[in-house]
Amino acid sequence: MSSLRAPASVHGRVLRLGVVGAIASLAVAGCAGTTNSPAPSSSLRTVPVPVSADVTVPTGAPDRTPPGTTLTWGQSAYLPADAFRATGQLAMFTVTGVEPGSRSELPSSLTKGGDPFYVHLTISQLADKAVPAPSTEGFSASSDGRTPTRTVAPPDNFSRCVANPTPKTAKRGDSIATCVVAVVDPGTVPDKVIYWADTTGDSSLNYKASPVVWSSPAPAPASSPVATPTG
């Protein structure tokens, strides 16, 4: 089975929490802040990033997404549920985007003089029985698709980047949307998200050397001008 999925439909407000069978309302992720925020690059979204994805897990056991895979926002990858157990259970990770924040929104003890960006992703359990829930270990924003940023958990009750509590256990099909804060040097624009964990000596699992990368779709090529008949 392919290790890629087509882009999922995404939602700016509603998250389906299969773990508790409830619906949680999330604030719409806002546009870029105007204070201490870096100017977004042409490839960074300037519209609100969806905070969750409406996904359906595949039937059967999917193949692990190999290192070096490139995806676009809303596509899913099958990666270790626990980065430190790279050959163990897989989970489905759907990254919906990264958006710029503002230093004024967060404690200086968290940003330490850097600029914050918010990485939004939805995690889905693939195990057929209740097992420890997947984690976001190994995910980071990146400006070049290889180098990770410093990544920290957002403060409690921070509406622009909501890290929903991870249940102790989750069963197949349970999904939860979450967010991590990437902190970069001023002026740096991380317009990609990477999975870069390397916890084994197995080269086929060396995501640090060849991360899985999410980014905006490449722009369509410009149309060639139509030649004007002469004579």
- Overall body shape: globular
Q: How many strands appear in the DSSP assignment?
A: 15
Q: Sheet with the most strands?
A: 5 strands, antiparallel
Second CATH tier, the architecture: Sandwich
Low-confidence runs (pLDDT<50, min 5 residues)? 1-43
Give the CA-CA distance, first to last residue.
57 Å
Assembly state here?
single chain
Main CATH class:
Mainly Beta
What portion of residues belong to β-strands? 25-35%
* Rg calculated over all Cα atoms: 18 Å
Mean pLDDT across all residues, rounded? 79
Order of helix and strand elements from N to C terminus: EEEEEEEHEEEEEEEE
Helix content range of the residues, please? under 10%
Named CATH topology? Immunoglobulin-like
Structural class: mainly beta
For the biggest β-sheet, the strand order reads 6-7-8-13-11
- How many structural domains in the coordinates? 1
Number of helices: 1
SSE layout:
Blueprint: E1 9-11, E2 14-17, E3 22-25, E4 52-54, E5 70-72, E6 76-80, E7 90-100, H1 108-111, E8 115-125, E9 131-132, E10 139-142, E11 150-152, E12 169-170, E13 175-184, E14 192-195, E15 212-215
Parallel strand pairs: 5-15
Antiparallel strand pairs: 1-4, 2-3, 6-7, 7-8, 8-13, 9-12, 10-14, 11-13, 14-15
Region (Disordered): 133-160, 212-231
Biased composition (Polar residues): 137-150
Describe the protein in words:
- It is a single chain.
- With 231 residues, the protein is an all-beta fold.
- The protein has a single domain, classed as Immunoglobulin-like (Sandwich), CATH 2.60.40.1240.
- It has 1 helix and 15 strands.
- The protein has a 5-stranded antiparallel sheet, with no helix packed on it. Strands 5-15-14-10 form a 4-stranded mixed sheet, with no helix packed on it.
- It is globular.
- The N terminus is likely disordered.
